[in-house]
Amino acid sequence: MPLIDLPVEDLRRYRAPLTEPDGLEDFWSRTLEETRAHDLALRAERVDVGLPLVEVLDVTFAGFGGHPIKAWLTRPAGATEDLPVVVEYLGYGGGRGLPHEHTLWAAAGYAHLVMDTRGQGSGWGSGGATADPVGAGNATPGVMTRGIEDPHDHYYRRLFTDGVRAVEAARALDGVDASRVAVKGISQGGGIALAVAGLVPDLVAVMPDVPFLCHVRRALDVTDAFPYQELAVYLSVHRERVETVLRTFDHFDGLHLARRATAPALFSVALRDRTCPPSTVYAAHNHYGELTAERTGTRPTAEMVEYPFNQHEGGQQHQLARQLRWFADRI
Amino acid sequence: MPLIDLPVEDLRRYRAPLTEPDGLEDFWSRTLEETRAHDLALRAERVDVGLPLVEVLDVTFAGFGGHPIKAWLTRPAGATEDLPVVVEYLGYGGGRGLPHEHTLWAAAGYAHLVMDTRGQGSGWGSGGATADPVGAGNATPGVMTRGIEDPHDHYYRRLFTDGVRAVEAARALDGVDASRVAVKGISQGGGIALAVAGLVPDLVAVMPDVPFLCHVRRALDVTDAFPYQELAVYLSVHRERVETVLRTFDHFDGLHLARRATAPALFSVALRDRTCPPSTVYAAHNHYGELTAERTGTRPTAEMVEYPFNQHEGGQQHQLARQLRWFADRI
Amino acid sequence: MPLIDLPVEDLRRYRAPLTEPDGLEDFWSRTLEETRAHDLALRAERVDVGLPLVEVLDVTFAGFGGHPIKAWLTRPAGATEDLPVVVEYLGYGGGRGLPHEHTLWAAAGYAHLVMDTRGQGSGWGSGGATADPVGAGNATPGVMTRGIEDPHDHYYRRLFTDGVRAVEAARALDGVDASRVAVKGISQGGGIALAVAGLVPDLVAVMPDVPFLCHVRRALDVTDAFPYQELAVYLSVHRERVETVLRTFDHFDGLHLARRATAPALFSVALRDRTCPPSTVYAAHNHYGELTAERTGTRPTAEMVEYPFNQHEGGQQHQLARQLRWFADRI
Amino acid sequence: MPLIDLPVEDLRRYRAPLTEPDGLEDFWSRTLEETRAHDLALRAERVDVGLPLVEVLDVTFAGFGGHPIKAWLTRPAGATEDLPVVVEYLGYGGGRGLPHEHTLWAAAGYAHLVMDTRGQGSGWGSGGATADPVGAGNATPGVMTRGIEDPHDHYYRRLFTDGVRAVEAARALDGVDASRVAVKGISQGGGIALAVAGLVPDLVAVMPDVPFLCHVRRALDVTDAFPYQELAVYLSVHRERVETVLRTFDHFDGLHLARRATAPALFSVALRDRTCPPSTVYAAHNHYGELTAERTGTRPTAEMVEYPFNQHEGGQQHQLARQLRWFADRI
Amino acid sequence: MPLIDLPVEDLRRYRAPLTEPDGLEDFWSRTLEETRAHDLALRAERVDVGLPLVEVLDVTFAGFGGHPIKAWLTRPAGATEDLPVVVEYLGYGGGRGLPHEHTLWAAAGYAHLVMDTRGQGSGWGSGGATADPVGAGNATPGVMTRGIEDPHDHYYRRLFTDGVRAVEAARALDGVDASRVAVKGISQGGGIALAVAGLVPDLVAVMPDVPFLCHVRRALDVTDAFPYQELAVYLSVHRERVETVLRTFDHFDGLHLARRATAPALFSVALRDRTCPPSTVYAAHNHYGELTAERTGTRPTAEMVEYPFNQHEGGQQHQLARQLRWFADRI
Amino acid sequence: MPLIDLPVEDLRRYRAPLTEPDGLEDFWSRTLEETRAHDLALRAERVDVGLPLVEVLDVTFAGFGGHPIKAWLTRPAGATEDLPVVVEYLGYGGGRGLPHEHTLWAAAGYAHLVMDTRGQGSGWGSGGATADPVGAGNATPGVMTRGIEDPHDHYYRRLFTDGVRAVEAARALDGVDASRVAVKGISQGGGIALAVAGLVPDLVAVMPDVPFLCHVRRALDVTDAFPYQELAVYLSVHRERVETVLRTFDHFDGLHLARRATAPALFSVALRDRTCPPSTVYAAHNHYGELTAERTGTRPTAEMVEYPFNQHEGGQQHQLARQLRWFADRI
User: Fold this and answer.
1) ipTM surpassing 0.90
2) Rounded to whole angstroms, how far apart are CA atoms B317 and B330?
3) Which CATH architecture has domain C8-330?
4) Where exactly are the structural domains of chain D?
5) Are E230 and E144 in contact (CB under 8 A)?
6) pTM score, whole prediction
7) What is a single Pfam family found in this protein's UniProt entry (chains A, B, C, D, E, F) (predicted)?
């Protein structure tokens, strides 16, 4: 891929046209309230995976609708103090996989909770273990259009809420310092992290890499790559519902939720990324925390790391090394 | 595509290795029994689509689990006698669309019921209107792997049952001759038609074109084309569940249900079809009604039309012309 | 495909640079005059296709050069009054196919004439039955470059003339109301419809969908998709003939002929259409009937339906439903 | 491409099932007789192309139907004796191009006549200059299906006849030794060369490289590559004409004509060739001259050069070097 | 990809035709002797990568020609006893990357040495740091054909020798139990591991996953996928050197070296792997250690794990989990 | 490909941002000085290729580092006067091939020296015969990134120097008029020709067609086609070295060296060329000789031939015909 989006100078100062729906905050506060009416139902069972240096727990908690959501918690074996915890969300189609895949943050001395993604986990990698027990109307394959006719029914209402509950679960676990929780994720994981950053007020750090689900209306104009393509396919069939569908998605646009974030952030973007085009990532970055600034007078910092020659793989291990250093400086 | 499967001489005499699960008939008879515990809840409302020659009804009936399933019924405007009815099922990803799309069988003097496909209808065409209100565990995008861990949970248990109920709905409608019901469909629609042919004892004709969902185990060996590919992707992730998954699918394999069919059939096959490879179609054809023959001494006829240079599009309008003649001869 | 052309706001007001050749009207009036020197030689034979509701006639008439051109006429069986007639032209590579494919407009109460396309009809669908008895110089495969060295020899001179003669044939048939003739078509069919709309003065309606052959010079700059690609391939070989070839095509550009149209039009465009890029469709729409306005003071109306998420398939059945309503309002 | 056809050991002894039509020899003798009823109308005009070492003539002669066919003749400038002549035919879609492209055989001391291909010459390269003034029925783009309904109307009847006439033209030119004429060509050019080898009794050498148009029925089974694909597309549309079409092509199958060849041949084949699969080339080679052997007791030699890792490009310059040596040994 | 190779039953008993060059063992013993004439020049420097649980050393040792080769050594921080060590080789185009990528085997309580690949490391991932200071003749891009004219000059002579020296370096490092060394790798890494298993007599375990470079002659027949394709491209150009090139590669074929292996092995294979076709993996497996059996009467065990629905990604984390268990059982 | 770069009007006046490294001229003058410290070691041996009209010599000379570089010299057999000589460089991946491929310029009455490309010659065509005996650090397959960390180590330092030495070799050969030397080449060959034109002061003509290696920084932004893609892949892995790598390439950018050219030039450009985008070609053209103009007051002429419908194949034989005329006018 050559460059496919605005010149980098324009990206850095890009201001997105906002399409926030009325009542966005109400929508989310009611959603979380309903969810919290269910008990968190937290369970955490020790798993032996043959790694003497790392302790692994198989975690279950109640997400949206009280549905059971799986996660892996890893931490240094034998750690006695309460540790900061990094909550991680996964890319589109993946699942939490096997526990030995997630040992780096434990090796770095932290607790690490990887949340499984409901109903996904069968597209690549080692598989997931969390159902989405909610059916849907007509939908294009994949989850992008499940329940698309109404924000209350939409898949991402459930998944983002699971993400908030994952933070609550992490805080409730033994050996975790509930005052030092970070969220992170790549692609869809980055989109969830941004959403959670806008919905949970007291995180210590946010690390979204090449986040998906930001500035969706523009994404549909500049890319036809999977998985945004699922939306385009749906709209190519249901030609009469374009505005309804886009309006639903406005409730889940990372751009809108990121404006409400309060914690410092380390973003990354890839300039040849057709999956999550750079202008959509910059849109979330450039508006990050701006409503918090209006409300409190203080805007959270938001650094951006650019990978000029990468496609959606982004910075990969280079970015991870950077996050380890950046996060250590903040804790 | 050049020829991708066995030489045509071998196809014609191909005998598939059968992998029928124990209790297949019990599984289905219990499924239908449970379904029939719900009222059929049939509704049919006249729709004005600006076609003076054709009357259109928007039909709703209770499918699997009592869930509402939509359909279009068309028939010659002003017909006074009870007409034979052709029940049609749709290809993968499609929906019942708009009513004016389905006027040919009415123009030919029949009633015609097109069943919408639950949860699909957003991949191509003009859209569907029927939800699948049942959630699922981890699944690959699409419906092939929804509920794949257990035959009772699997998507096709619901959809095939809807197909049986569509026949019951057709029979219950005014102006229909309940003793003259045929089923038909292309690709997934053909797979449903074969399943219904094995589950409903008193049809007058079955017209499956390039049917999907037949001899699935072989299909996975000889093609990687969508949508069989959904299963392969699932199994490439869930490496430990291969036999479980294939066993689930054995309950829905058109090959196994076709053996129980009783009505005369007109099949078609395309010799360059990578979506539904010809050996999988021939498998269903060559075993068609063989259990009925064992049980009753009479084997239903099963003609096959070969399209040697076609891919999955098959015979298209040529086959439709043939069906009109063949069906007229039988009614 | 993401958006590939101008932003939609610019499309709506796009004014194309015109490259009308001198003598365009003379060229066409002489062409039609020569054609009309041949007798129309109209024949129409009843065909039994097993559809009691629809009467089908196999029509032959003399097109350009007096060559025999085939068509299907369908109309409600037993209709006694003279009916309005819709003349339809076909997409690139297709043929008139089988008569049962064309029953919708009859079901809607109209006569319907589908003109076969000379020399095409073997690329998709059910086949054509009309030869193009004229040879050509060196040409790229396909018809775009046949006779490209001189407008008098070019394939589209023959085909557009056939299109005009199809209207004359429709008018001459029994049971048709010659004062109420509409033309329509998709892609190439839409291009022919626009050409005929500029060449025949007394039509009642024009319905071009995603029309091909409009603003060809721009199309060559913004797309490399088939079939415009045929021209680009020719010019990549015959590097010395660029202006000659483009000049030939100027005689057949739907943009130039549409300026002379007199009947009200209902266009459709797909914003992700790489085959017939939206700016080329808007070019024809935005100039539609402007010369008629200059000459008569009255400009025919031209509505446009936009399909923002569709590729070349455009509105499909949704647009057809719209045409049925729009046409009924006008008749 | 990995190997796509039979193992090489099987290729070397492959015997094709023959499908020669009755009356094949009559068909061709009558065709040539009709053609020779037209005067050869040979013209040859000196062209200055700025190459002091090579003399170039722009040749025109009457091919099938008396139609004018163009060719380039090149020979060493200032040669005074009568030279052997190599007649070359061109690959599918190409034209004779510019005269300076064809100087190698002149540099080697021979006369060289490159025949243009009627109606082609606009797909790649530098262009052709010969029209095909004969129209056709419905056809897939390209020439493979022009006139396919009847061998008398088929394009290759005209082109192969042009090929025979090119030999006659070469012999009639000044400075050529009419007793030493060879034919050669790559792909389609090789197919023409084989046909001419079967139709002209007194050639001195035949050099077909990766010849097209041999054992067409098998080619359709083992490849879907262009240009055999044109036939497959035609038959996928005209589903009812399979045997008619294949029968027409039997008249032009290089396999059938090669059996009648009399001159020694140097073939080449590429084992990864999907365009002209190796079994189709070996079919022509393994049957080469076998009828001549029956009739005369002497079978012409036929060497084969295998390129095991090449696709349709075959031996390219390596094969040309080989031909230069092989031909020099024979003259 | 559907199945592309032999049926699985045939794979399991597949016996490859062997093409071992004369003097294979001499070739390798002389190569290692020459290499060992250079001092090992081992250096290992502590690197701080912010992982309190894992100690990382940046290792350099002298490989083939005494050239400096880089590696990462990781082990549990603060381990005091001598640990078993796993030496890992990398896939084609990758490099040793960043040290935090390689912490799993340390987390499992072992030392782990990841050898960088000379001259590669710029195709994917996080990069390499080892030059290949040897030039080459004409070569296709990539390393497969560098020095292909003579086994002494070939790239894999250098790389396999580096692999042997990596074992020697691992044994010479502090804190390593030199009697418990395993080798492993995926794809090219698996090919190197097999070669090292045949060249180093006293390993405790060998874990090749979907190994590349095995039964190369067959691989060229059944796949055209990268990187075997590099060889095919070379041979398509250098048409005269086929046997020379294949003969060179025979010296590096994992099949030939695996016959000499002495340690127990755990293989894995993917049945839809076009990059390293399953028959080539089974060839190495089925001949594994057979010469050792001849010489010593004892054949090393060789287990095979099949992944029936995977392409070249193979078992991924599932296989890694299996290796952790299998290796723990053996140590 | 549709148009992919600036509108043609903008291309014609496009001024590139220059990124010439300091000391560019010193870099090159020192490089040539070091090279000339090696004897030219010229050898030229007569080869019999069976072409009586053309004499062929197999030439070897010392290029960069004194490494032996191969070339073919062809000239009219028996020519007695000293002839102008055309030195030709080759496209990426190709080699000098077989001598009979290069006879046109001899047929036109000139001497012609085709320089082989070190280390390439195995990607297409008939092969090369020149090694690159210099190793490299980590590199992406291909030569673009060999030695990319330092301009002194970079592959193109060696190759461009070979290009200069080829001119010196041509001048030193018998039968050549050293005062009439032209350079030419297509793609990479055009890039070398431009570099040589900037490094050798007394050429008579320069003929670069669709030159590669010009305005590389822009090329990376507007295309992802091979071979520029090699650089992009390298930078996607070595994310931390972007500026170092681009800085290295600045030393070899044809744009920078073309500014120093002194001889008249005939360029060609293809407007649909994704391999060497037209703005990069125009960049070199529009700056051609501008420093010479500053220094001497005289700017060499630079004509441009545009091929508006061609991709990277450009003008092919049409351009060659043009060069023959243009060069004849200049000599």
Assistant:
1) yes
2) 20
3) 3-Layer(aba) Sandwich (3.40)
4) 8-330
5) yes
6) 0.97
7) AXE1
